Amino acid sequence: MVVLTYIFDWMRRLSIAFRNQVPHVVTYTRELPISLERMYENALDWEHLPWLHRSTFSHLEVLDSGDWGWRAKAYMHPKSFLTYMIIELRLDRDKNRWITKTHRGLGKGTEIWTHAIPLGENKIKVIVDFYVPKLPFWLKKSYADQYTDLYARLYDEDLWMMASRQKELDRVSKAKHSEKVESLSLGKLTEVETQLPLAFEFNHHPFRLVKLNGEFRAHSLSCPHMLGPLDDAAIHDGVLECPWHGYQFDIQTGKCVSGQKCRLARPPRIVVDRESREVFANAV
Ligand code: FES
Ligand SMILES: [Fe+2]
User: Do 154 and 43 contact (CB within 8 A), yes or no?
Assistant: First the structure.
């Protein structure tokens, strides 16, 4: 399939262009229950491509980035010269749009124009137009179907990220003005043991109680990078990985062990009351 895509792309690139304009192939539209701010943030976030969209991108190396957009070397699956591309995304806030161009490799010359129209406080409509140069007429339908399917999947994944992030941002801002407690009972030791890993909220922050080397350990379930959910992150050798951008954290120390400058929120101290045999989360 990858080889076939590569061959078709070369046939397209070698065919003669009858006009200078890049021809339009298909339009994908979708309403999303999120703000324009979340959408722009997502467009500028090159880092999530090989993580959140791991089924599409196998690898990405950023070459340049800023408020204007980003330029990167990217690979689809599997990582090889057949799937190599240089992509650039430029955001134009005044025109409510960003243009993604493929400058080299697979899909060279392709332009994807996305307009994001605000429909309400937390509602936008995206209109994505795909332009592909030198496309023989007999390949148009297949390209149109592929782009539509691909973008439906990418936006499903993006929507999950943008909506979860908004929910977390709302939680954080609410938590600032809420009352704090010093101690919270998590239940009887015998019950808690059977419920591990046990998710709980302490002072409006999500944590998870696990056992490491025979000892209780609580860790934050909100990634310090962009508030990604760590609820389903598996723990390997005391380290968990965020699904949005792949940052890794040591749950004993909270330190980021994948090289970025951030750390997990401090967890409450877990104590077992000797007399009542109850497990408590205590403020530190
Ligand atoms: S939100 Fe980016 S790595 Fe977790
Ligand atoms: Fe995305």
Answer: no
258 CA from centroid of ligand 1 (Å): 11
* Ligand 1 pocket, Cβ-based, cut-off 6 angstroms: 223, 225-226, 228, 242, 244-245, 247
Q: Three-state DSSP class for 164?
A: helix
**Dihedral of alpha carbons 167, 242, 61, 77, sign:** negative
Confidence of residue 8 (pLDDT cuts 50, 70, 90): confident
Q: How many angstroms separate the CA atoms of 233 and 243, rounded?
A: 7
What residue segments make up the domains of the chain, in order of their start? 2-174, 183-282
Instruction: For residue 170, count other CB atoms closer than 10 A to its CB.
Output: 10
- Residue 55 in 3-state DSSP? coil
User: Which is the closest atom of ligand 1 to the Cα of 223?
Assistant: 4
> Is the domain covering 183-282 a CATH 1.10.10.10 domain?
no
The minimum-distance atom of ligand 1 relative to the CA of 227 is 1
- In angstroms, the CA 59 to CA 121 distance is 35
Please, what is the average pLDDT of the chain? 95
Query: How does pLDDT run across 148-169, given as a tens digit for each residue?
Result: 999 999 999 999 999 999 999 9
CA 29 to ligand 2 center in whole angstroms? 15
d(Cα 42, Cα 190) in Å, to the nearest integer? 44
CATH T-level topology, domain 2-174: Alpha-D-Glucose-1,6-Bisphosphate; Chain A, domain 4 (3.30.530)
Interval between CA 276 and ligand 2 midpoint (Å): 49
204 sits in the region (left: phi over 0; alpha: psi -120 to 50; else beta) called left
Pocket test for ligand 1, best of 167, 223, 263 (most atoms within 8 A of CB): 223
Phi, psi for 43 (deg, rounded to 5): -65, -40
